[in-house]
Amino acid sequence: MSRLLHNLPAKLLALLASALLWFQLRESQPVTERALTRPLQVLGLAEDRVAMGLPVQVQLRLRGPSRLLEGSNLNPVNAYVDLSGVDSGEFTRDVRVGLPAGVELVGLEPARVEARVERYETKTLPVVAQHPSEVLTVEPAMVQAKGPLSLVLQAHRAVGYVEGEDEVVVLVAVDAEGRPLNDLILTPDRVRVTERGPLLTRRMLPLRLQKAPQGWRVLEASIPPSVEVQGDPQVLRRLERVEARIPLKAGRFEAPLELVLPPGVQAVNGVTGTFRVERVQ
Predict the structure, then answer these.
(1) What is the pTM of this model?
(2) pLDDT digit string (tens) for 138-157?
(3) Per the count of CB atoms within 10 A, which of 47, 58, 203, 255 is most buried?
(4) What's the rounded Cα separation, in Å, for the pair 175 and 11?
(5) Is the dihedral of CA 186, 188, 191, 194 positive or negative?
(6) Rounded CA separation 226/243 (Å)
(7) Does residue 12 surpass a pLDDT of 60?
């Protein structure tokens, strides 16, 4: 007992100094918490496989000395799922987190994920470049789409939208209904406009025969009541009907009609008629 009490004031003073030092260190490096977002990485998957349905990122809550939860000290923090051994189909995995020493994970959302693995496939898609008032020819006319099998099977074409005089068209893969398939990778992902022309539309118009020129008489004539034409929309809007010239040939015959159309407008299909025509003296 005497040894324990020996030099007691000095021992108490040393204990007090240690306590003060611990308190000062604790106050200078307080333990705090911090919320953090990290992209969810996928490890262990073959190059020709892709994970579908995974969240893009996860939410972390970390605890540790404040100096460890600031700036570049957080660079080593990462979140991942290990899919080693998964070839295809659905899977469930825990999200794993890599942390620097001295930092504790106290919250993770989501902590467990469910998704599926699919094989990467490629498909050749035709390119359609759309302009509000022009028909565009582009090069190349076909591109390669690469991505998960389920999306590649839906891909119908690669579409780009152009306004003004842009010469480069950025493409996106779409399905048969025109819905974008943004997870497909296109190669190349843009094309170059090589030719521009007026946007053509179609319209069904009444078909009429012109009067027979002097010296000819039409005894019988049978022609279609209407004809489908295509051309510049502004020109087509001004047309009320299409006239056809009478073939100048005596007798009964069937012949293609010569249509009188403005420049840039043409019939979608050829038109024929049946006639009986005589020459007048």
Answers:
(1) 0.54
(2) 999 999 999 999 999 999 99
(3) 58
(4) 82
(5) negative
(6) 10
(7) yes
